[in-house]
Write a structure and sequence with these properties.
Blueprint: E1 3-5, E2 9-10, E3 22-23, E4 29-30, E5 33-34, H1 36-47, E6 50-51, E7 55-57
Antiparallel strand pairs: 1-3, 1-7, 2-6, 4-5
Length: 58
């Protein structure tokens, strides 16, 4: 299981309550590890906000 942690959100100053960690779905993990570009897009698509970085732990 892999997680995206320490997600930093770009909220344009809006007061929002967004999670800072997520379990990464298996579809983004293969024999080469986590596809961080796909996870990056997924985080923004799922939450409706752009992020300003995250870390992956496996």
């Amino acid at each position: 299981m892999a997680k995206a942690v320490n997600v930093k959100w770009e909220t344009d100053g809006c007061d929002v309550d967004l999670p800072t960690q997520f379990e990464i779905p298996e579809r983004f993990i293969d024999e080469n590890g986590v596809d961080t570009e796909a996870v990056s897009d997924w985080l923004s698509d799922e939450n409706g906000w752009l992020h300003d970085g995250f870390e992956v732990i496996e």
